[in-house]
Amino acid sequence: MPAPVSDRIAGNDRETPGFRVDPAAAGSFTMTVMLTSTGRRGFCCLLGALISGLAGAAQAGPPAAEMARIERLIVMVGTRKDMRLVRNGKEHDTDTAVQFLRGKLRYYSDDIKTAEDFITLCGTRSTTTGQLYWVRLTDGREMPAGDFLRVELARLDKAAAASGR
After folding, report:
1. Quick check: pTM over 0.70?
2. Do 63 and 113 touch, CB atoms closer than 8 A?
3. pLDDT tens across the length of the chain (165 residues)
4. How far is the C-alpha of 157 from the C-alpha of 22, rounded, in Å?
5. Which of 13, 106, 142, 149 has the most CB within a 10 Å radius?
């Protein structure tokens, strides 16, 4: 049976598996960890739990429900053949727009928690030039891409709610 904590601190020579108190430390309390087989196993379990926790904390990106909303929005952009994305003065087709949005989603994944964050960080303006992105429809209308994406997200959310998704 391990020595009570008070005995170990008082300097009795008793040791518990895994720990040893140094009674010679004048006025201070020092503890040396001795990794017995039981101690090593416990230490490894603790280390594994810490690493797993850090890996979970480091997992980037929005929660699953928000990621589903973002994915619906990106897929919608890809299916819209009646529009072009104007980025830094150059017009791009929707396939290129989808690739671009997915690339920015990967780049900003640590900062994106909601679909609205995605629109703000990925679909609104160039971080290089500061210029707004625009959507140009085949009927000649143009609107800021962020506004277009917000309107489409609201439409997609309403459709998803109506279908029970």
Report:
1. no
2. yes
3. 555 544 444 555 554 455 455 555 555 444 444 545 555 555 554 445 445 444 444 556 789 999 999 999 999 999 999 999 999 999 999 999 999 999 999 999 999 999 999 999 999 999 999 999 999 999 999 999 999 999 999 999 999 999 876
4. 65
5. 149
144, β-bridge pairs: 134
C-alpha angle with apex 15: 11 to 18, nearest 5 degrees? 130
85-102 burial by CB neighbour count: b if 16+ within 10 A, else e?
bbbeeeebebeebbebbe
Rounded CA-CA distance 163/160 in Å is 5
Q: Is the separation of the CB atoms in 31 and 22 below 8 Å?
A: yes
